Fold this sequence. Notes:
The chain is α+β, with helices and mostly antiparallel strands. It has helices at 10-38, 51-62, 86-99, 116-122, 146-153, 178-191, 209-221, 226-229, 249-262, 282-303, 330-343, 399-407, 605-629, and strands at 45-50, 65-68, 75-79, 102-107, 110-115, 134-140, 162-166, 171-177, 197-203, 233-237, 242-248, 271-276, 314-318, 323-328, 349-374, 383-385, 418-424, 430-448, 451-455, 460-478, 484-506, 511-524, 533-546, 551-567, 582-602.
Amino acid sequence: MASAHKPRDGNGRAAIAVLPRLLALSTALLLAATALAQSDQVTLNLKDAELSALVETVAEATGRNFVLDPRVSARVTVVSQRPMGADALYEVFLSILQVHGFSAVPSGEVTKIVPDANARQLGGRGDADGGDAIVTQVITVEHVPVAQLVPILRPLIPQQGHFAAYPPANVLIISDYASNVERLVGLIRDIDRGGTESVKVLELEHASAAELARTLGELQGQQGGEAATRRARVAADERTNSLVIAGPDDELGRLERLVRDLDGPKQATGDTRVVYLKYAKAEETAEVLQGLSENLQADGERTQEGGEGREAVSIQPDAATNSLVISAPPRVQRELSAIIDKLDIRRAQVVIEAAIAEVSEDVAAELGFQWAIDGSGNGDAALGGTSFENSRISGGDSLAGIIGSLSQDQLPNPGRGLNLAVGDLAGGTRFAALLRALASDAGTNILSTPSLVTVDNQEAEITVAQNVPFVTGSFSNATDGGNELNPFQTIERRDVGLILKVKPQINEGDSVLLDIEQEVSSVTQSTQAVDLITDKRSIRTSVLVDSGRLVVLGGLLDEQIRESEQRVPLLGSIPGLGQLFRYRASESETRNLMVFLRPRIVRDEGTMSRYASEKYSQMRDTQKAQRERGVGLLPDERAPVLPPLSRPELPPPFTARRQ
């Protein structure tokens, strides 16, 4: 029967084990409540008690309302030897929460008890009481940039705390325990103290503000380490030729005396400097400065009171070193130096790529019949026939011309195309007949792609042409015997081919104004002209185009049709039979010419190097392809190939290598 009272499972044993603890907790709470009812002093003695029970005790003793987060659960042990009031009891309570990883966040009439990780998100009032309460405070910093304080104060913030800076308002945001926030505020106030620096403006009379600021800057830089941070700071105002210095008062006094010593009059009446130019040409820059120097002298004389005489200003260019030798008063020197700095800049370049496309088509046809009968050898026989003039298409002799050449034992010119001739030129009655037929079709497709690089506002020209001689006159002196003496001809040579002249002007932004002169000419073969005939197509215009955009300068669309017919009246109109009395020729000529242009602005050396490398590689690939095709009757190695580009910054020597 005794076994019936024995616990049958583990839950029963656990319940029996917890009973002593519950009895102890109840006793402690009863004692604490009894003491609180009898007096305002409370003595806490808890051992392994539930945190929720402690919260109930503190709420009853302090009169506060608490809200517990569901995640708040712990067992606490508190040993106290003396009684404490309600405020002290609450401080002990906050310390117990901090030890167990919880925080009390005041919110209106209640206090929230949450884990530390969530306490900074809920925040608390900046004036919350209790050193272990979580508070969020915004601290305004007046003298020190907040970005400099973050690395200093961050190690003092615990992991669960929040610390951030807002540079636009120069404030710090801290969310942490009230005691730690109070300590950090004290540190920030100690650091954020205004210095004893002052600012002074020193006007210079003789020296240049920019040069003197550079000299003083080098002097300050030599004071290394901590001493350099206590030195004054110097800045130059070139417009008023003044120095602005800021720093400690003792340093300002020392620096002001030094500036006054350096800003003294020179022994000589003039000042001579050599200015080396980087990009501009010395001759062109000297012309600009010589005109400005007179105005600068006149302005200086008007500002000086009682000035006597004018100091000479001399500006001489040195082409060998591309420099300017300037002799002028210090004030004029300063203004000329400022002008030179603005003129001596790297000028942008323009890459101009042109495409000239010409497509033409010539179609011609000729058909005619000529005949002749001569019966003069048989007495009174008839004489007749047809004869038409030479055609410009075939270029052959007429039937009469062929008969005349054969009678003189000369070789006739039959002309181009089909020529069928029959006849009997011997005997009494002679006859001859000539049938001529010709059809021609010629097409031309020419593409020229010239390109050139030029500096902004600098005219560039590229010419790809032949120098063709043209006869402009002749003279011969004949003697009485008919012999010519000293005959001569005057010849003028002209370029016939492709000529491109461009002057770019880069406007604000990426637009380019182009002054263009474009000419395309060629020599035409003609048997009817006395001398050579040239076909010329030219464009002269100004266009405004954005960088990298394609623009068409102009075009020529020309179509000509010429039709000629020679016939014998009446007989040539007879259907069918009239073909024996007609001679017809037709021509059609169509020509399309377009000129395209694309400028690209190049402002730096890297872009120019990439463009040059691209063109270099393109030419090298063309040469390699030609070598692969081979050269007829010659070894393949005879075809030259450009060397490869080893490094973009170091172009290879332009020598043909056998690869």
